[in-house]
Amino acid sequence: xxxxxxxxSTANACAPQGLCVCADDYAASQAxxxxxxxxxxxxxxxxxxxxxxxxxxxxxxxxxxxxxxxASIGLxxxxxxxxxxxxxHGLGLGALMGRSAVRGLSRPHVEREIGRQLDAFESxxxxxxxxxxxxxxxxxxxxxxxxxxxxxxxxxxxQAPWLRWSRVVVTQSASxxxxxxxxxxxxxxxxxxxxxxxxxxxxxRGPLLGVYDFDPTPGVFAAHMEQWLQASVQSPSAxxxxxxxxxxxxxxxxxxxxxxxxxxxxxxxxxDLAQRYGVACG
Length: 282
Known about the structure:
Blueprint: E1 20-26, H1 30-41, E2 47-50, H2 57-60, E3 72-77, H3 82-87, H4 93-101, H5 107-125, E4 131-134, H6 144-156, E5 162-164, H7 176-187, H8 190-199, E6 204-205, E7 208-209, H9 220-232, E8 239-242, H10 255-266, H11 269-276
Parallel strand pairs: 1-2, 1-8, 2-3, 3-4, 4-5, 5-6, 7-8
Helix pairs in contact: 1-10, 5-6
């Protein structure tokens, strides 16, 4: 295992105070990885979360190396993607929620899988993750959260990566479906994760911005971004998750929205908006 104290990515590359813009799903596809690398090169985002269950991780990792000191490169813990299901431990989101709710997941099995994903990250990156979050917020689900906190505490001690806190900030312009989505995310463990992380002396970063219904209509994402930046003023350690891609992959349900996110984040409007709200960008 790499020495956490020697790793440039164990430090929180997002400043302790100030919005952290984190691009999820690195290595999910070529279009996603390339968009994230370009945004890091432009200094438009501050962090990215990696899907190590993807076969692309080992080949895509080298493109992140120039940003190891600049950005937090983290683990996107995965139980629900097609990659996770192909590896045998994964379940559909509904099935995982059902098993987790009744604590039907095997704690030893979950701990082994978390360790395996951390190993997969470190064996390629040659350093521990700067942070840990979860694909579809599964890191806060019952059984998984306890196993994750135990694993991080015992594996890294005081050098443990920070955890994303998925208590969602809902803006005034959020639709009813977005409000419902936010309430479901909150209900699936945001409070419990915060309590248990505090008891384990593990660092949390949040609350969470960036939850919407992935409406691909032009202008929708830009309007959301302004609302989220307004909300971030009251939450100085918030994380704003984004999901950019250069093009929409045919099998990606949110592909069109990803492209709109990329166009906004790589364009001139984003640094202007960020400057108005004191967010480091560009």
